[in-house]
Amino acid sequence: MRFNSVLFDLDGTLVDPRMAITHSVHYALTQFGVQDVTPDDLLAFIGPPLMESFERYFGLTGEDGIRAIGHYREHFSELGPRANIPYPDIELLLERLNDAGVLVTIATSKPTVFAEEIVIAYGFDRWVDLVVGSNLDHSRTAKAEVIAHLLDERPQIRAGSVIMVGDREHDVIGARAHGIDTVGAIWGYGSPGELQRAGALHLTNDVRELGSLLGAW
Predict the structure, then answer these.
(1) CATH number for the domain including 50?
(2) Are residues 126 and 101 part of one domain?
């Protein structure tokens, strides 16, 4: 498979955010008196928009949901971008794609400002043309909305010459809303079944396999 453009998810695809996200969610929940969960119980928060997960799993809606996200961001900022660890061979894959003339972008539900900090911290900005995430005012959190904005910013990207790479159903559903196929990254936090049901075109077990599929080596 060869494409002119690749859209990457960030969390669970390029970096492992387990410690940064679960510890930050745990901190936020303690501010609401939730004491009977541990960070290891909160893996389901990796991938979906935070507001959606705080409501779904703990019933925090409206102002409470906004407060929870505020506490989460406070702790996430204290941990810093390097609490998110790149998966093996990710840097090499990005470099190879960039060298081959492929336009590499990132579409994430994480706020753009935090995503850019991670990208810069690990030097991904050498190969990534554009990072688009959600807004700090809690808008543009759905993956389809993020991708819509990215496509507006890069009109040269066209369905048929682009592929999305992500680890959760939200990536697949968001990409399909724009006629874009998805490769499922099953080293992340979504199950093969979740990705297949959502309509992922291919599943890849590791970054090396993904690179071969994309023609990077």
Answers:
(1) 1.10.150.240
(2) yes
